[in-house]
Design goal:
The chain is an all-beta fold. A hairpin with a 2-residue loop joins strand 2 and strand 3. It has one domain. The protein is elongated, with a radius of gyration of 16 Å. It has a four-stranded antiparallel beta sheet with strand order 1-6-5-4, with no helix packed on it. It is built from no helices and eight strands. It holds the Pfam family SVWC. Its main location: secreted. One of its GO terms (cellular component) is extracellular region.
């Protein structure tokens, strides 16, 4: 059985006047430039993806914290290196 994939999300401004219309993601090793419709998985945060909406605005998605059913637990993520929401999927294991 697979766990559901509800999201925690927020809309943020990633604009930079030097790159009009782009989402600019400044990470320690480089600067990532996204156009509308592109996504970037943040390397230092588990299952966190930024989707560039347009004009420097983006939505950041990550897996919602969930509690498993009573007497059950979640497995480790099935595909932790995938983009959101695939990286959130886990099995429900009941004893």
């Amino acid at each position: 059985m697979l766990g559901g994939v509800p999201a925690e999300l927020s809309v943020n401004s990633y604009e930079d006047p030097a790159y009009p219309g782009r989402c600019v993601i400044d990470i320690p090793s480089s600067v990532v430039l996204l156009t509308a419709g592109q996504a970037f998985k943040l390397p230092n945060l588990d299952c966190t993806t930024i989707f560039c909406i347009s004009d420097g605005w983006g939505t950041i998605f990550t897996c919602e914290k969930q509690e498993p059913p009573d007497d059950c637990r979640f497995s480790e993520p099935l595909n932790p290196d995938a983009f959101y929401p695939e990286c959130c999927k886990r099995r429900v294991v009941c004893d």
